[in-house]
Amino acid sequence: MPFPVPAGRLSTALAGLQASGVRGVNVTLPHKEAAAAACTALEAPADQIGAVNTVRFAADGTMHGYNTDALGMIDLLATFDRPPDKVVLLGAGGAAKAVLWSLFQAGATVVYWSNRTGSRLVSPWGSDRTRVQPVPWASESLKDAMVDSTLIINATSLGWRAEDRLPWLGQTLSPRSTYLDLNYHPSSRLLLDARANGARVIDGLALLVRQGAAAFTLLTGMPAPLSVMRRALRRHLGVQATDSEASPRSQGASAPSPRRRQ
């Protein structure tokens, strides 16, 4: 059941849901970083990422924040033939930071990171294995990075409107590229252009189902019905099954460890 919440009203909405006896909620943009600030405790890896997309209301009145985006992304990356090497990551919001953390865990060699607001390209953690290279938006350097990388990830809000475009996308994608877009709108021009260029395309449904499965298990204590979830999403969006729905190495993302930061 969706609850549309205006920006700046998340804390009020969470308190109201908790008072109503709701067990927990899934949170989406633009609220993921605000959700982290509103929680009493952050469970790993939300405490490292600084963004929350699942909130569990405990019986003692506390709010526990989780990041199942990161868990779902790790599960998705595990389906690749080999670990990611050179990656372009577009975006710097809560979802993008979850992706960046997941790329660190997967052992990516280089992440070329770009965002329309360059001042937001600040990683809250480091990695001995992964080098993060900030790249100016729409620059020639970004074009070179996209040519150099085999995986391009769009974690921006671009793609939901027909007029949305990403710099250099149509000029750099090829059959050797994988384009992963967190957007899952079936008529997205970005997804259509990527497919037209012959790239392997993974749309946001792949991550949406995986993070939803992890959230379902966290809030109910039961295994998520993945096949039912996939069918329901396809029916809702009016789309057919795609290669983005390849079965994960395990049947759903695992729940996070109980470690938390108060």
From TrEMBL:
It comes from the Bacteria. One of its GO terms (biological process) is shikimate metabolic process. Residues 241-254 have a biased composition (Polar residues). Pfam families: SDH_C (PF18317), Shikimate_dh_N (PF08501). GO terms for molecular function: NADP binding; shikimate 3-dehydrogenase (NADP+) activity. One of its GO terms (cellular component) is cytosol. InterPro entries: Aminoacid_DH-like_N_sf (IPR046346), NAD(P)-bd_dom_sf (IPR036291), SDH_C (IPR041121), Shikimate_DH-bd_N (IPR013708), Shikimate_DH_fam (IPR022893). Pathway: Metabolic intermediate biosynthesis; chorismate biosynthesis; chorismate from D-erythrose 4-phosphate and phosphoenolpyruvate: step 4/7. Residues 204-234 form the SDH C-terminal domain. Keywords: Amino-acid biosynthesis, Aromatic amino acid biosynthesis. Residues 239-262 are annotated as: Disordered. Residues 2-55 form the Shikimate dehydrogenase substrate binding N-terminal domain. This is Shikimate 5-dehydrogenase I alpha. It comes from Candidatus Ozemobacter sibiricus.
